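re the bet — no i am not wrong, look at it urself. input seq straight from the record:
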Amino acid sequence: MSINDLPVLSALRTKMQWHQERQRVLSENVSNSDTPNFRPRELVEPKFDKTGAPAGSMGPLAMAVTSTSHMTPSGAASSFDQNRNAGFETRPAGNAVNLEEEMMKSANNQMDYAAVTSLYSKSLHLLKTAIGKG
């Protein structure tokens, strides 16, 4: 078993990748804050089972419907969270991006990413110490 196969490290890597992708989605929301009829998107947070493996709909390549003309995969949950507040602050042009909310999400995402990367590097250091190379 290699170090990369450890469930804890795999879960931390998955979480880091999710934070990176979420930052991209949040940046798209901010950059489209003036686009007419644009709805903000959000990613579904990955869930892990007791072994650290992704649980639920998280897989290596989750399908996503990015256009209304795409067909929905049968039985698959969307990887985007549905904004239940959509339309709450929709401007007359149809744009529902709340910049303050997106910036708060972005800041929280950045802090969570820093925490996960710190935990990942400390886990690697602990493993190196355990095998006598740290």
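see?? The CA atoms of residues 6 and 53 lie 10 Å apart. told u. also The chain is about 45% helix and 5% strand. so pay up
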